[in-house]
Write a structure and sequence with these properties.
5 strands, 2 helices, 5-stranded antiparallel β-sheet, alpha+beta, globular
């Protein structure tokens, strides 16, 4: 992945392109009380829609650091986000090379087997039920 230093302004999306790989451009945009990192496909669909999105606290440097540390070829999603507004979750092409990192996460970014900071998180409840355990 090529990281842009400094990020490049994208006037169409009114955001900043932090990086790009063979299939996507990764931009952050202001989204209400959050910053949303979006994965835009590198085809005509990327002009109007994004494949994946992750919401972060309103700190552009946190998002930039998260993207810079991420290997999208091996790791499903970047770290540090607190909401995934898109479904299904992104799957890295070579995700089997980092199984510890690529464990299932809930929509709030937590690994489901570790529980979630959000009360009554549906993904964690479903995980617990699938194991035959009572939800935490």
């Amino acid at each position: 992945m090529k990281v842009n230093e400094p990020p490049v302004l994208d006037t169409h999306w009114e955001g900043y392109e932090l990086a790009a790989d063979a299939t996507h451009r990764y931009l952050w945009i202001w989204q209400g009380f959050n910053i949303r990192l979006i994965a835009l496909p590198k085809n005509e669909d990327g002009d109007w829609a994004y494949d994946h999105g992750w919401c972060y606290p309103k700190d552009p440097q946190v998002v930039a650091d998260s993207v810079a540390a991420w290997d999208p070829d091996v790791q499903d999603e970047p770290m540090g986000w607190h909401k995934r507004p898109t479904d299904p979750a992104r799957r890295a092409p070579r995700r089997d090379e980092d199984p510890q990192y690529n464990r299932d996460r809930c929509v709030h970014g937590c690994y489901v087997e570790d529980g979630c900071r959000t009360v009554n998180c549906r993904d964690v409840i479903e995980h617990e039920r699938s194991r035959g355990a009572a939800p935490r």
